[in-house]
Amino acid sequence: VKVKGMNTGDIRIKRWVLHDVPNSPKKGDGDPLGLSGGISPHSDKVASYLDRRLSNSLGKAAREVQEQSIGTELAVPLAVRKFFDSKDDALLEVSQDLAKYLHTCQSGNVSPGLLVVAEAQDATTKEKLLVIMKLEPQDGVRATKTIRDDGTVVYDIGYVDDLMLTRQTRVFKVAVFGAKGAAKKPLKGFAVDEQIQRTSGLAHFFLTTFLGCELQEKDEVVTQRFLNEGEKFAASLPAPQRPKFVAAMQTELASNDVSISIDAFAAKHLKVDRRRDFKEHMKSAAVPKTFQKDVDLVEGYLKKVQMNVDDGSVVITPLQNLDKSVKVTTINDEQSQIAITGKLIGTKPRGNR
Amino acid sequence: VSTSSAIAAARDRYVSEFDIYESLAAEVRTSIASELRRRGIEAETSARAKEVASFVTKAFRKNYADPWEQTTDKAGVRVTLFYERDLQTALDMILDLYPIDPDVEDKREELEVEKLGYLGVHVTVKVKQGAEMLPCEVQIRTSSQGSWAVVSHHLLYKPDLVLPDPVRRSLYRLLALVELFDSEVEHAMAAFTSLPEFAAASLKTAAERAFYEFRTEPYDQQLTMIVLDSIKAAFDTDDLPGYTAQLGNFVSAQKARIADRLAHYRDGSAHPILSQPEAIVLFERLEAAADQLEEAWLGAFPVDLLDDVKAAWGYDL
Asked: Consecutive 10-residue runs of chain B (317 residues): their mean pLDDT?
């Protein structure tokens, strides 16, 4: 079951609680958990910032996730259900549960950060949403600590005005669960871990260890579909452009980059007037806009490229020869020339004897 | 040769079916006007069913053998264009709308080069009405051609009152002015569209018009011009003159979403552009030509500002 149909620009953060979550001490000498005792004071400016940041992140890299099926209910799915099922206002309590759990499992190389747990609403459908964000201090926000008259400690988001300048450096992790997705078994929602796009070592801390979720569709399946759909799209390109495009996909998959962004791939390998068709093609084939590469299912296809010519000729060449010893040039819209330069070292009959 | 009885029969039938032709003309006018708007072609349209008296007069004057079948302008629509350059586009558009067996009378093609004459285009289209295909005549012309046609209809084609030749010639001489008028308007339009500020100014007009459907507050006009001038490469130059209509169509289709976004980001301190008219243009470009917008944007502003606009408009999950 998919929780589709949401527009990220419709998500409106209504109230939030912020906790300062340092790394858990391994030997008892870590910083204490900065737990908020109240809902953060509302600020339109911060809400607007969070709305846009959330929309941007989800729009560029959201993946559909669901709770892991391991027999017992994990901490975050439990808290999410509590938020939606509780008759009373459970935002503060749920946020504290989440912060405590994050603190216990966040250790070692995992970066400390601010946990924002927010109640939101879809402006169009009016569906209630729970948003869990892990911000790191360079994200343009910082925690400010206030002690109220009754002694309650409340952390709030201090908004850094030079946000525009600091944007390139931050890391942002977010999960969104809706009332409809929370009513399902397993629990379903969306998650983004921007760190996945940069490094692989810590990739699944947020999704697996903390959220207790998994991708609804495995990366290896998505990677294979990207290649298959890319080949189908290539058929819509003028013939002379096809080999380069197919080779670009193979090269991208074989590279050391951890993830693939459909938008970035289109910008790099397609002329501006063809990008939209490519993106639409991938969207209609349900290829996520960003995904972590997993070439297990396609490894065999990444080493060579095959070009079939309408006269029956077939050219198979290692990928790295393309544009070097094997050059494809355009003669006209219909015809191309494949030129192979090298020392001919063998010729043999081919076909069934 | 028509007989009085054939005309009388046709007249009686026309009287009884007059309402059908009146609504046929209105229907054709509505669909043509809507398509003209959608394509950004500036024009005025009108519709009428031929008056019964005109129907009879014409049948006698033309000596129709079959007055009912030969009178193809019982339903009529007039399309008056502001610019001559749109004449062919409008004709092609109408032929696209009504592709079944159209009959085109293009005066531009009929007139020899050394002669002057009326240059409008008349096309009789066939429109399905129940089980029948009924004709409707669509006249396409510029406003100056229209003015001449109206005057000539009154003064030149009265069988009982023939003006002296010198006066008739003076009326035909006006056709030279009609051609000159349309030609000079075309020159002025060409000069206008080649002004360096034309793109940004047209976009600003379109943006402001769309913006005032939602808001009435003053805005930073200088910022609007800077932003729109910077993204003009995200448009086809040919589309700019009709962009107001194009943006209007976008606003109609996305009214609720635009209203929501403009209300949510009403406070300009949250974001410099999202409270401005150009936000609507940016939203429209994100739907119509996002990659071209991005290319144009990257040459002028930080990518984060566009990311914010994209985020505000939203992505479908």
From this structure: 81 96 96 87 94 93 91 96 92 95 88 84 93 94 93 81 89 92 92 86 91 91 93 87 86 94 84 91 96 92 90 93
What are the beta bridge partners of residue A290? A261
Closest Cα of chain A to B55: distance in Å?
A: 53
The chain A residues in contact with chain B (CB within 8 A) are 4-10, 12, 44-45, 48-49, 51-56, 58-60, 62, 123-124, 164, 167, 190, 266-267, 272-273, 275-276, 289
pLDDT tens digit sequence for A158-211: 654 434 334 543 557 899 999 988 887 889 999 988 765 544 444 578 888 899
Selection from A192, A315, A180 nearest residue A247 by Cα? A315
Both structure tokens of A36: 């908020």
| Rounded-to-10 torsion of CA A285, A288, A289, A291 | -130
Q: How confident is the model at residue A265 (pLDDT cuts 50, 70, 90)?
A: very high
Q: How far is CA B70 from CA A133, B20, B98, B110, B225, in A?
A: 75, 17, 20, 21, 56
Comparing alpha-carbon positions, the chain A residue that sits nearest to B309 is A52
Q: What is the pLDDT of residues A238-251, one digit of tens each?
A: 887 888 888 888 88
Compute the nearest-CA separation of B111 from chain A (Å).
Answer: 40
The residue in chain A having the minimum alpha-carbon distance to the alpha carbon of residue B269 is A45
> pTM for the whole thing?
0.74
Note the ipTM here.
0.79
Number of H helices, E strands in chain A: 9, 15
Please write the tens of the pLDDT for every residue from A38-70: 998 888 888 888 898 899 989 988 899 999 887
- Measure CB to CB from residue A56 to each of B289, B307, B317 and give the nearest one: B307
Question: Which positions in chain B touch A266 (Cβ < 8 Å)?
Answer: 291
Q: How far, in Å, CA of A155 to CA of A89, rounded?
A: 19
B133 vs A2, higher pLDDT = B133
Measure CB to CB from residue B317 to each of A4, A56, A164 and give the nearest one.
A4
What single string gives the DSSP state of each residue in A59-108?
HHH-EEEEE--SSS--HHHHHHHHHHH-SS--HHHHHHHHHHHHHHH--T
Cβ neighbours of A159 in B, within 8 Å:
none
Closest CA to A226 of A184, A159, A285: A285
Chain centroid to CA A35: 28
- All residues of chain B having their beta carbon less than 8 Å from the beta carbon of residue A45 are 267, 269-270
pLDDT of amino acid A202: 42
> Residue B257: in which H helix or E strand, if any?
helix B255-264
Residue of A nearest to B308 (CA): A52
Please state, in angstroms and as integers, the Cα–Cα distance from residue A87 to each residue in A37, A67, A95, A180, following that order.
20, 23, 16, 16
What angle, 0 to 180 degrees and rounded to 10, lies between the N-to-C axes of helices B221-230 and B198-211? 120
Q: Which of A74-78, A226-230, A233-237, B268-272 has the lowest mean pLDDT?
A: B268-272
For residues B65 and B59, what is the distance between their CA atoms, to the nearest angstrom?
9
**At A66, which amino acid appears?**
Q
- Min distance A55 CA to chain B CA atoms (Å): 5
Phi, psi of A280 (to 5 degrees): -65, -40
In chain A, % helix, strand, coil (3-state, to 5) comes to: 35, 25, 35
Distance, CA of B139 to CA of B76 (rounded, Å):
8
**Is the Cβ–Cβ distance between A11 and A118 less than 8 Å?**
no
Considering only the beta carbons, identify the residue of B260, B304, B315 that sits closest to A55: B315
- Which residue does chain A place closest to B307, by CA atoms? A56
